[in-house]
Structure formats: structure tokens, C-alpha cells
Amino acid sequence: MACVTETFIYRASIGPEPGKTYSGAEGVRAGIAEMRAIDAGRIPVVTDQNIHGNRGYYRWIYRWPSTGVVADEVGCDWIQFRDGLLDSKDAYRKVRQHPTVPALRHPTTPAAAPSPGAPVTARLANAGDAEALLQLMERLAEFEGYKADFRVTTKELLARGLAASQGQEFRAFVADCAAGGLSGYAVVQEIPFTFDLRPTLVLKELFVAAADRSRGVGTALMEAVITYARRRGCGRLRWLVLPGNDAAKRFYERFGGAIDSAWENWVLNPSLNSASAHVSAEESVDGDPAAVASRKCADE
To answer: Would 115 be classed as within a structural domain?
Structure first.
């Protein structure tokens, strides 16, 4: 937020009339994240802009394509500068709907929950799913025994992926629950390339709420992950399973998954105790045993 003043005010085009207001660098940062979440999936186009002195404007269109609905949201932002920095922004928008399509549902309106008998589908998570997604993550942390070390928050979920415009650290797929909220989720992270110059997709977490199991939720999530891996051109999909979770093993075998017997899973705590730090310092001298021996002699 280096381009705005400390007293910057952002009056958004959505929210309680005449629009939600954000102030200060952190408030504006949160406001921008909220607006990006609301407008996720749309195609933005700036139609024209003009700056004269310390004032300016730019006009834009958000095209919102979806099944059976095509509408444009036309907007205009009035901006004011002070000392070369943005000092305020007033945003306005209106819907210009194509006359032959059904009425537009505004994205801030919660989506209708699927009926209990409807087929289960998985979708890419967005910022509006942050709170419900965190609740499921906490349940998984309890199940797998690391709840005491769990540090994820909704703010981190938004900043690291759900509301990030670029450089997302993860992707999440979710399945909606008939009673509202989410019935399950899957989180993936991508390793850009390895030996074959193809990405590796890591299935970091897959969890289904107890009340929604045996309904096909896990299958829908896993199929969404596999489809995503194929579209990304990944060479492989990897994940970990708790040794005693036989039900999960049987589930993954249905998709062709198998234990990777060629490798062992090793881990080193990044906090590094003093003994391991000492070893690391010794072995960091170009990997040369003679150099390590020389250092030991010098230490003695």
C-alpha cells in the first residue's frame, strides 16, 4: 500500500448503502480483498480513464458469464490524489443485464444449498468459503492430532490463496452441504517442476465431515483434484496417509493410488535443535570430509 496516504478512504461500490467504507492502509487492504472475492471469476475491462491535476476517474466493465446468465456490471471510480499519493476512491456500479437472460443473482447472495438427493459436486473455493473451510481444517487437525500446533486463520487463507490475485500458495476444492456450509474440502499445492520438467501436485489435505460421509463427497473432491492435475499437465499426484487409516487407503486405491515403495517419508523439524544445527554447520563446508576434519581440529 505504498501508493496511498495514511488517511486514504475507499468507498466501495457494494455494501450497505451508499457502499461500504474502508479507511487506513490495513482497512483498505481488507476492502480490496473483499471486493476481489466478490468479483472473483469475472472478466475485467477498463474502458477509459483520465487524470487531471489531483483528480481523475476510470470506467470499467465486469463481465459475469455463467450458465444461462450473461450480464455486465458497469462501474466508475472517482479518485483523488494528495502529494502524489492516492487519497480517496469512490466506486460506483450498476448492472446492465442482457434482455434475454434470467434475472441476475448478485454474488453476495449465498448460493442455494443443494437438496439432500442431488448429486454431489466439487468446486473451486473462493473467499466466501474461508470461515467454513477453516472450521473443517480444525476438525481435521483434531482427527490427525496436531490441533495444538494449528495456526491457520481466515486471514491467512484469504491472503495465501482464496483472495490472492496472484502467487496463490494453494488451491482448495469444496463440496457444499445440503444443510448449508461445506461438507468437505481438498487442498492442493503445486511443485512447479521436477526431473521431467513437469509439475507435481501435492494433495495436502482431503477431509469430509462425519455427517456427510458415504454420500460421494470424497469421490467428488478427489475427481476434482485429478481433473485439475491433468489440466495443469502434472506428471504425478502425491499425498500422505496416516498408517492406521485403512479406510482412507481403500478409498485412494479406488482411483489407482498405491504406496510409493521406492521412497521413505523423512522429516526434519525446522526449529533444529542444537545438535542437528552443529552437524549442519560441519557438513556445510562444501561437503568435503577433509574440510570437516580440519574444522574439528581447529575447534579442538
So the answer is: no
Residue 30: which CATH number?
3.10.450.50
pLDDT tens-place string over residues 241-275: 999 999 999 999 999 999 999 999 898 877 765 55
233 and 281, same domain (yes or no): no
Show Cβ contacts of residue 262 under 8 Å, excluding neighbours closer than 6 positions.
Answer: none
Place of cell 444443510: 179
Q: Does 260 fall in a domain? A: no
Residue 257 C-alpha cell reads as 493410488
Cα distances (angstroms) measured from residue 37 to each of 40, 105, 267: 5, 16, 36
Distances 30 to 27, 37, 64, 118, 158 between C-alpha atoms, Å: 5, 11, 23, 36, 10
The C-alpha cell 502434472 sits at: 234
Instruction: Classify 84 in phi/psi space as left (phi over 0), alpha (psi -120 to 50) or beta.
Output: left
Predicted TM-score of the model (pTM)? 0.56
Q: CB–CB of 123/173 below 8 Å?
A: yes
